[in-house]
Amino acid sequence: MADISFFICIFAVALVLFCDTALFINYRCKTMKKNAFIFLLLSLVALAETAMLFSCKPEGLGGNEFEATLENYSSTQGAISEMKWAKNDQIIIFGEGGSGTYTANPHNPPSSATFVRVGGSDVSAPCRAFYPSTLSSDGTNVALPTTQRNEDGGLHYLPMFAESNDENLQFRNLCGALRVHLTKANTSISSIKVSAGTIISGTFRVNSSGGNPSLNHTMGGSNVVTLECTSPQDIGGGHSFYIALPAGTYSGLQIEINTSDSRYCMINVGTDVVIQRSKYSTLTFSNDELAFMEPLHEGTLTGLFSVSADIQVHFSQGNLQYQPSTGTWRFAEQQYSYIGSANSKISASYGGWIDLFGWGTGSNPTNYSSRYTDYFDTVDWSTMAISNGGNRAGTWRTLTATEWAYLFTGRSNAAKKWGSATVSGIHGLIILPDTYTMPQGISFNAAQTGWLGNNYTMAQWNQMQAAGAVFLTTSGMRMSRKVGYVGTNGFYWSSSVVGEQYARSICFGSSGLQSSYSQDRSCGLAVRPVRNKE
Fold first, then answer.
1. Which of 55-69, 349-363, 412-426 has the lowest mean pLDDT?
2. CA-to-CA distance for 308 and 499, rounded, in angstroms?
3. Which residues contact 114 (CB under 8 A, 6 or more apart)?
4. What is the separation of C-alpha 140 from the centre of its chain, rounded to a whole number of angstroms?
5. What number is the average pLDDT over the span 189-209?
6. In angstroms, rounded to a whole number, what is the distance separating the alpha carbons of residues 205 and 291?
7. Cβ distance 222 to 201 under 8 Å?
8. What is d(CA 460, CA 455) in angstroms, rounded to the nearest whole number?
9. Above pLDDT 90, what percent of the chain?
10. Kind and range of the H or E run holding 25
């Protein structure tokens, strides 16, 4: 297009010169015929000058087009460099006139590109722009996803932001990246999950003062981000994977590596990891550190616990919960989660969730009668089809009273493997598996009385959980529709009865534990399912 415009301009100039010369020659002519010729020449001059005006005018920017460049820190160690625009990359621009979606035509080199509007409104400066185009819906906040894609083994996803008073946009990275470098032959990776002690996805506000953008979390999100490989990625002699994260100092990171044949490896990072904007921090794991294990069933924690001389079990990921209106069973998302006082709303039509159940009410979980005789037709709650626990009946079960007692008093070094604790302000009881290595820099006081004897941040607890620890919360007790002891005591059913009126349970508070306690069957207590080691 530029070459055609050039020749049009040359032609127009030549035509003007020709016409001017003709005018000069014909100026002396006095006849009507000559005057008519002059009129014709003057018309041609006007047309030529108009052609020059439209053909030689450079294409302006703004409205339909913007120029965009990428920041480059290639000279800095650990910097994210060699960022390139690709054809059809899309950005969204917010400015005067509304917002519009623009697509890239990269230049050479592709660190710059012309963006042409393909949707929305014409936009004029001042403006704010975001990459990718799905990153922002209001020009102020960005939505960082919980799932990122690893398409080619490089840094595929890195959100960017630009702010400008004209049509020239300099994009800056909003995040840094965690570079996970793996060295293990003959292994193919399907995904890598990063768990942190703080929110790393969700809605964040962009602060752009001083040309150095930063992010502040405002709403929603998760402390987990998963990098999924579009196709299985062979490690070979070594391979790097990049996960975009907000800038910050991360303590107690967990890295879960999943293979294409469904094995997994859990790694606790024992040191702080600092992520800087537009830079990456590297974690390298060698062959010896990558001990891949066979897959666990859905909803299953990693630790193994002896509940008799010849039986080991895995605990579920959280307490059992039930939604009456849909008839749905599930595990709590986290070990420290509980419903609390909302259990008082128990009814057959209740649309919320409950987690305190009368004894043996697997087939009638909304029974809140205060008569123990209404609890003789018993079904183990844990044997129900649990939506996030495999969704198949008979997969899980509840420990017997004898097994609970063996867990706390019968297995090897049992007295050193449990204690009261507080996890991020939530009181409960920690139980360690048969084989356990305490994460570096974290201590545990067994059988400690008082909630603050073991007091952990969320980051510290994430490391302990990854190593296999179980946490039972102080979820309280329900008596008919009255709920009490929430936050101060925990009560968990066993599957064992004592005569007609009572069933066995465990109960604990800040001052200790009773591992075989007789409880009226009509009381609503928590249930923590287990499954036998296979």
1. 55-69
2. 24
3. 65, 66, 67, 68, 104, 105, 107
4. 20
5. 90
6. 39
7. yes
8. 9
9. 64
10. helix 2-26
